Amino acid sequence: MTSLPDCSEVTGTNCAARSGQRKIPGGLTNSGDLTDADELAGPDELAGPDELAGPDELAGDLRAVMSRFASGVTVVTTRWQQRFHALTATAFCSVSLEPPLVLVSVGKTSRFHPAVTGAGCWAVSLLSESQSDVARHFANSGRDLESQFAEVPYTLGRYSAAPLLAGALGWLDCRTWAHYDGGDHTIIVGEVLQATHAPGDSAALTYYREAYNDATGTELA
C-alpha cells in the first residue's frame, strides 16, 4: 500500500497520519480498502502550508458548509439576577442517556452568555414548525429584555424556574454539568432533570441555508 505523508507534514499541525483513503468525485476521500495504488492522492496533490485558507476565508467556508446542515431549533432560557434571559439556538444536541446530558453552544459575546453560565440552571424548548416567529424574536439581539416575554406564553420549569415556551414540541429542565471552551463559544453541558413532550405528532421547526423551514423543507416567511 502506498503511504501518504503525515498531516503535520502538509499543514504544520500535529494531525494523525492519514492512510487508506480512496479518491472519490469532487476531490473528497472515503476511507476503505484500496485495490489500486493509482487511486491514492500523491504528495504533490495535497495542499501545502502556503495553500491553506486564511482564518477569515476558512471561517466563511465553514459557515457556508454548515448552513447546508439542517438542524432543529430551540429556545434556551434561564433566570439570572431576577430576570429572564433567552436565546434561539440551533447548536444543541443530546450527549448521553446515562447520565442524561445535553449540550448547547453559546457565543461568548452574546448577552445570554453571562446569564446561562452564571445561573447554573436553564431550560430548553424544542420549537414546532408553527413557531418561526418565536425563533426570530429570540434571535434578535436588540430586543428589549424587560418585555421580551410579554407576548410569548410560557410556564416555569420546576427546577430551573426558567420559561418553558407554550406550543413547543418538548421541554428540558437542566442544571449545568460542565463548561468547555470552544473558541468564540462556550460549550455548556447540562444534566437533564426533567423531560416532557407535547401530545400529538406536530412537526419540528428546522433551520437550513440560513432560513427557518417546515418539515417539508419549505422556507417559512
Secondary-structure blueprint of this entry?
Elements: H1 7-11, E1 21-24, E2 28-31, H2 55-66, E3 71-72, E4 74-80, E5 83-89, E6 92-96, E7 101-107, H3 112-119, E8 121-126, H4 132-139, E9 154-156, E10 163-165, E11 170-182, E12 185-197, E13 206-208, E14 211-213
Antiparallel strand pairs: 1-2, 3-13, 4-5, 4-8, 6-7, 7-12, 8-11, 9-10, 11-12, 13-14
Describe the global form.
globular
Taking all residues together, what is the mean pLDDT?
82
State the helix count. Answer: 4
Helix content: 10-25%
Question: Which residues form runs of ≥5 with pLDDT under 50?
Answer: 4-8, 15-27, 29-35
Determine the structural class based on helices, strands and strand pairing: alpha+beta
| Rg measurement, Å | 22 Å
Strand fraction equals 35-45%
Distance between the termini: 54 Å
Give the SSE string. Answer: HEEHEEEEEHEHEEEEEE
Q: Tell how many strands the DSSP assignment holds.
A: 14
- The largest beta-sheet arranges its strands as 5-4-8-11-12-7-6
Main β sheet profile: 7 strands, antiparallel
Q: Your description of this structure?
A:
There is one protein chain. The protein is α+β, with helices and mostly antiparallel strands. It is 15% helix and 36% strand. The protein is built from four helices and 14 strands. It has helices at 7-11, 55-66, 112-119, 132-139; strands at 21-24, 28-31, 71-72, 74-80, 83-89, 92-96, 101-107, 121-126, 154-156, 163-165, 170-182, 185-197, 206-208, 211-213. The strands form four sheets. Strands 5-4-8-11-12-7-6 form a seven-stranded antiparallel β-sheet. It has a three-stranded antiparallel β-sheet with strand order 3-13-14, with no helix packed on it. A hairpin with a 4-residue loop joins strand 6 (92-96) and strand 7 (101-107). The chain is globular and about 55 Å long.
